[in-house]
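ingest -> validate -> predict -> emit
validate: passed (alphabet ok, no gaps, 190 aa)
predict: started
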Amino acid sequence: MDITYIKAAIEGILYAVGSAVEESTLISAISTEEEQVTKKQIHEAVASLMEDYDQADRGIRIIELNTKYQLCTKNEYYEILAKVVNMPKKHVLTDVLLETLSIIAYKQPVTRAEIEKIRGVSCSHAVNRLIEYNLVCEVGRLDAPGHPILFGTTDDFLRSFGISSMDELPDISQEKIADFTKQAEEEVVV
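emit:
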């Protein structure tokens, strides 16, 4: 199948859908009975589109979110777009929200009780705010008494932090973990 056709098809699908589209959905949508589109062809077409959109005179870009792709406005045009669609300003993440979000990101799926055990304080407000910002969502229930909710991050989390997958989160060194443990123990003693 011609790469130009595949690029145009992907562009049309991403534009029309507006949200992230699974790679497998693109493959099945573009493939025909006569010709099956491969993952490699999709990757090449998306990479070519990303390169095209990366030009300074373009206002859109394609982002990759795990195995999904989405057509988005470039960040530098957010303020202009906000004027047109009256979008709210970007949410401000306080230290408490960032701390709670980082626990969820690194420990997911995680319950409220586990977050509170790590933080040492109630996290209901922080978790609710992160859900409101669509950075965190319910990903299931723990098979335990009361069936507590398990939380994980969303595609908006990936988008907001400019990463394609959770694999791109920075590793926490053992030294840092030891420092955090020491600080936590000192805070408990005080």
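The two ends are 68 Å apart (CA to CA).
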